[in-house]
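Lecture 7, part 2: worked example. A protein chain together with flavin-adenine dinucleotide.
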Amino acid sequence: MHGSYFRERCVGNRPLGIRSMSNRVHIVGAGVAGLHCAAVLRSNGVRVAVYEKSDAVGGRMRTDQVGGFLLDRGFHVMQSGYECAGSRVDFGSLGARPFRSGVRVIRLAGGTPEVLTYADPFRSPLAALGSLRNGNWFDLLRVGALRWRLVHQDVNASFSSGDASTHRYLRELGFSQDFLKRFFCPLLAGIFLESRLATSERMFRFVFQAMARGKMLLPRAGIKAVPERIADFVGREHIRLGVPARAIDSRRVLIGDRVEDAAQIIVAHPTVGASDSRSVWTLHFDAEHSPAPGGYLLLNGDYELGKNAIAHLAVPSDVQPCYGADGRALVTVTVVGDAAQALGLVEPGAVADRVRYELGAWFPQSVNWRILAVQNVSGALPVREAGSGLKADTPATSSEILSCGDHCLHGSVEGALRSAEAAAIECLNRLGIEPAPITHTY
Ligand SMILES: Cc1cc2nc3c(=O)[nH]c(=O)nc-3n(C[C@H](O)[C@H](O)[C@H](O)COP(=O)(O)OP(=O)(O)OC[C@H]3O[C@@H](n4cnc5c(N)ncnc54)[C@H](O)[C@@H]3O)c2cc1C
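Predicted complex, written out as structure tokens:
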């Protein structure tokens, strides 16, 4: 069939013609992948209908307002260093603000907390000189060398060779076990959402490269601002909330007990079970003052599976004041699912008690912090361990029902966006439409 049959005449993003539902592409899931896929199709003049089973768009990128605080569902940042996210999202217009480059590490030395700063030597060379006091020079030089190499390397090269675990990769690069425990384990546990660093080295290179190239940002309205912007671009009238849908085949979708015909069905949600994905606990506290000012991520330098729970802590209100309320600070603590499990913590109350106990050793004033929320996200990220053959982009598919989402590539906003573009382009090809270059931003 000819492409113009599916393509409507458009002015910018606005349709001029009305066609029946069967001429639309139907997308199941309004996470960032489903929305971006819909947006790319819309910008090519294709009519879409997006079905979302929950009450809002965003999927895993949601933000709740609690007592004036902005609580993202899990500690979540946008990385400006991701190629696709960095070029499609207009961080300036979202009022996004960056965390400081580098990290701080907190350790208990003889029961007394000690905070070390690891500044980024390429962005804050003077502060970085001070970091040299904080560890083995060889480890710090290796971080610098690795960072330099990855920044100058093509993204695809990160995926083209080597597929061992991140732990093995870092050990083979010569990093000491102590540095892994103090720096890489708590940092990467909070990113991979697993504490053994069993995730493929390819994912490590990809993430570390993005961190070195760009910044970790928080939008002014919370992380949900990103999918909300994409939904605005798609047009809210094309998104149906509270409507679970199921693909029957490539051209039919089941909505309730009604079957709808479509030009193409695209499934934009994970279909894997909890055992194939990572989980994470996030605890948000209302604190009178920031316990760790400076806009750094604070890593637990004593992090060890089975010994403690907290991987890292952030104070989003130090970076983006809108996250706080009435001049009070928002403290966000991350406990990776496997760390909670190793300590036998399964109930929110037990996780909260344990976190309070660990915080007490670092910040005695935390006894006065009020818990705003204890969140548990299961199905947080797809598992991508050593040997998973991770690629930079989704391979071409001959599958009749098209899919997109981070589960098609890797667990990140970048993975979700890239897979969405691949699905949209394949869909356009099937409809006989020459895909236009993607030039719009959100
Ligand atoms: C706590 C946490 C922190 C994270 N931090 C980061 C970070 O800092 N940086 C980063 O890059 N990535 C991060 N991620 C990963 C990132 O959030 C995800 O990769 C991305 O949001 C996945 O988007 P998606 O559209 O693929 O899937 P989802 O967001 O899961 O969207 C799928 C949507 O489909 C809907 N749906 C499911 N079934 C149906 C159905 N039958 N009918 C209709 N609708 C359906 C769901 O309700 C959902 O809205 C984090 C994830 C979590 C959970």
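Confidence is low (pLDDT under 50) at residues 1-6, 8-19. The chain has 13 helices and 22 strands. Keep this in mind for problem set question 3.
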